[in-house]
Specification:
The protein has about 550 residues and is mainly α. Among the domains are: about 130 residues, no CATH class; about 170 residues; about 80 residues, no CATH class. Helix content is about 60%, strand content about 5%. The chain is built from 26 helices and 5 strands. A 3-stranded antiparallel sheet has the order 3-4-5, covered by helices on one side. The longest helix is centred in the first third of the chain and has 25 residues. It is elongated, with a radius of gyration of 38 Å. The N and C termini lie far apart (about 125 Å). About 35% of the residues are buried.
Length: about 550
């Protein structure tokens, strides 16, 4: 203890007797090292460069733990004040301690402080991309959400490009919120990451990354597969919708390798955004997925957009068949078929078009929906998956055969709303809707689906006789299949002989009842070129043949 006391006493005496604290007049010199003028000009130049530089560099300063802008202003103000005080003190030779009486050294120290500040700002702006951690989580979240909420496109693009390296940490932290042992009090960095992922689902932000930075979207989808607990459904839906709606997006450059080269072969967006069954199904179970379009958008899709939607849906369906051979229930598949059905609902509007029915968006949506079902059936045929039952089942979406059969029947129901006596009616009903399934292809898949569709249509006719639903299906069958049963042994149209014979027999026995009890329903059964002859009490189908003097006809005599 005595030894320690002696040491402190010795140090105290040395400081007390040190002549460095003695006051003496300040001695100025002519050194030009880091004067006030040089400092102000350098500071002004840095401010100008910083303001005209890329916004991403300012964004990196925004998301640091501390407000570097405020710290830089305070430091620069302190340096300017000390420089001004130093100039005044030495120019007037005021008293100063001997160890501070070095004019150049003081300015060198101030220059070093200013240089360290500049190097740190440059390091943050140019060499260190932003990362989300506990230290800067709150500031990172506040700055990013504030800028995204503003919606400035140039700033959103800078944010998207700069967030790329940080997305791994954001997904990792955001996926841990629900699995934390104390869900009510998770770590702040996890909460900020979770909420930041929800913020990225802003429609304007999703629109921008689809238009300008699709690589960011692909990276997010890849990370969503890696971190399944991350909140991703809303972002998935908005990005997928934007890829389909925006015909200038990179997604539309993946139509074929012949047209687009590498991206047409690799198809990074198609395979990542629309071709991951597990991710899309997981998002669908949480409410929305990348395949779901808002109902207001479906009615505005044109031919090019419908082609993109069809391609996206087929990419998912192919993955669905590959990853789900046991046909467990799929929310995404059910909603995809519902969207396809919605695309056909407006085809009735071409009844009121005098010309150019083929160029109408309703016709384009209907044809694309039919093409989707046709190609989906071909994919199912290649997969080798068998039906659970030959007869139509009640649990539609637990069996892909029942789901596609119902979708084809829905397509036929929409086609039956086109009933004008023109060739467009035949095109929609026969060449598009009916040929979706009833073509000349023969296989297990086609035979099972045809049986289910025939059975479903006939059930609709007999169960809804006397109302317009049954009339729609009956009129479609009479117009497309004809009024004569024909020969069952003939190969031509043999696949629809059973339905044709049943419909003809039912019509012969029941049409008189419809005329008596439901005349409007009976009139609704007459579609296309089918008419009713009151005098002879028969149905007549007149074929369009301009090469003959009298057009050929088919006649169905009624009971």
């Amino acid at each position: 203890m005595h030894f320690v006391t002696n040491i402190f006493s010795t140090v105290y005496d040395a400081i007390r007797n040190w002549n460095g604290f003695q006051l003496e007049p300040a001695i100025s010199d002519t050194s030009s090292v880091f004067g006030l003028a040089q400092f102000l000009s350098t500071l002004a130049l840095l401010v100008v460069v910083f303001n005209v530089s890329d916004f991403r560099y300012r964004y990196r300063l925004y998301v640091t733990r501390y407000d570097i802008r405020k710290a830089a202003i305070l430091t620069a103000s302190a340096i300017a004040g000390v420089l001004l005080l130093t100039e005044f003190w030495f120019q007037n030779a005021l008293p100063i301690p001997r160890f501070l009486n070095h004019y150049s050294n003081i300015k060198i120290v101030l220059a070093a402080v200013f240089l360290v500040l500049i190097i740190y700002i440059v390091l943050v702006c140019f060499l260190r991309p932003p990362k989300l951690a506990r230290a800067n989580a709150v500031q990172f979240f506040r700055a990013t959400t504030h800028l995204i909420h503003q919606g400035n496109k140039d700033r959103l693009q800078a944010i998207a490009e700069d967030l790329g390296p940080a997305m791994e940490d954001i997904f990792r932290l955001g996926s841990q919120v629900r699995s934390h042992s104390e869900p009510s009090k998770p770590p702040i960095e996890q909460v900020c990451a979770h909420d930041l992922l929800l913020t990225l689902a802003d429609r304007r932000f999703c629109n921008l990354i689809v238009d300008r930075d699709p690589a960011f979207a692909i990276r997010c989808f890849v990370l969503a597969i890696k971190y399944p607990e991350a909140p991703f459904a809303q972002f998935s839906r908005n990005v997928g919708e934007e890829f389909i709606v925006n015909t200038d997006s990179a997604f539309y450059q993946e139509d074929s390798g012949y047209s687009s080269g590498y991206f047409g072969y690799a198809k990074p967006i198609t395979s990542t955004v629309f071709g991951s069954y597990e991710l899309i199904e997981r998002c669908a179970t949480k409410g929305v997925s990348s395949l779901e379009l808002h109902y207001s958008i479906i009615d505005t899709l044109d031919a090019i957009q419908m082609e993109g939607f069809k391609r996206a849906g087929l990419a998912f369906f192919s993955a669905y068949l590959e990853k789900n051979p046991h046909q467990s229930h799929s929310y995404a598949f059910a909603r995809l078929l519902a969207s396809v059905d919605s695309c056909t609902s407006g085809i009735y509007k071409i009844n009121n078009l005098a010309v150019d029915e083929w160029k109408s968006p309703e016709y384009a949506r209907f044809k694309a929906a039919a093409d989707f079902l046709k190609e989906a059936i071909a994919l199912l045929d290649k997969s080798g998956i068998k039906a659970r039952s030959v007869r139509p089942g009640k649990e539609t979406f637990h069996d892909v055969y029942d789901a596609l059969a119902q979708a084809v029947v829905g397509l036929i129901s929409s086609a039956a709303t086109v009933d004008v006596a023109t060739f467009v009616c035949w095109t929609v009903q026969h060449n598009i809707a009916w040929k979706t399934l009833f073509s000349h292809r023969e296989s297990y898949t086609y035979s099972i689906l045809r049986f289910k569709v025939r059975r479903l249509i006939y059930n609709e006719i007999i169960q809804n006789s006397g109302n317009f639903i049954g009339a729609r299906y009956l009129g479609f069958c009479l117009h497309v299949l004809g009024l004569t049963a024909g020969d069952r042994r003939r190969a031509f149209n043999r696949e629809d002989y059973a339905l044709r014979a049943c419909v003809i027999n039912w019509t012969k026995k029941n049409y008189k009842m419809l005329l008596a009890d439901h005349p409007n329903v009976a009139q609704a059964c007459l579609q296309g070129f089918v008419t009713y002859d009151h005098e002879k009490h028969q149905l007549v189908k007149t074929f369009s043949d301009l090469t003959r003097k009298e057009a050929p006809r088919e006649v169905l005599a009624l009971d």
